[in-house]
Amino acid sequence: MFQQDTLERTAEQCQEVSRIFSEMDRTYHRLAQRTGLSDCAFWVMYALGEHAAPLSQKSLVEGWCYAKQTVSSALKMLIERRLIRLEPAAEDRRSKVIELTEAGERFLRDHVEPTMLLERCALESLTPADREQLVRLLSRYVSRLTEETMSPTKRPMEPAAV
Questions:
Q1: What number of other Cβ atoms are within 10 A of residue 53's Cβ?
Q2: Hey, how many other C-beta atoms are within 10 angstroms of the C-beta on 101?
Q3: Residue pLDDT, tens place only, 1-19
Q4: Which stretch of 30-39, 110-119, 150-159 has the lowest confidence by average pLDDT?
Q5: pTM
Q6: Distance between CA atoms of 141 and 84, rounded to whole angstroms?
Q7: Gap between the Cα atoms of 6 and 128, Å rounded
Q8: Quick check: 71 and 78 in contact, CB under 8 A?
Q9: How far is the CA of 19 from the CAs of 9, 16, 54, 97, 122, in angstroms?
Q10: Which segments of the protein form a coiled coil according to its record (predicted)?
Q11: Domains, the chain, ranges and CATH?
């Protein structure tokens, strides 16, 4: 009986976590829409706002878990809007790095940095210990989920014994 109750509660918690992540996705989608950018283009601008140095397309693909073609399409849109430019990388002239234009810097300041401030305010509403725990638990959860999905032949693991 105890194990069945635990399994049912775990299933409910999985649904709640999925709802929370979906709500977060919707929130960021709305924020991107307000800027007139696609979700990926918004995250490209966000990533550029996080880093002082220019970024490579490869680092965006790897760091933000978007498909290369999705990032390429977002970059094309941002170039057309004159928010970014691609420049040859200093270490490898065949590679390109993404840099903000003056218009991109203004856009970042006016539209992306307020999102970053919202995030900080939301986190600051938690105690320092709760913030640490949130980061630690989310990291563990995502790592485990990623681990379980990396192998195409691996079947989902059985629930942990209670």
A1: 7
A2: 15
A3: 557 778 899 999 999 999 9
A4: 150-159
A5: 0.83
A6: 34
A7: 30
A8: no
A9: 15, 5, 35, 36, 18
A10: none
A11: 38-150 (1.10.10.10)
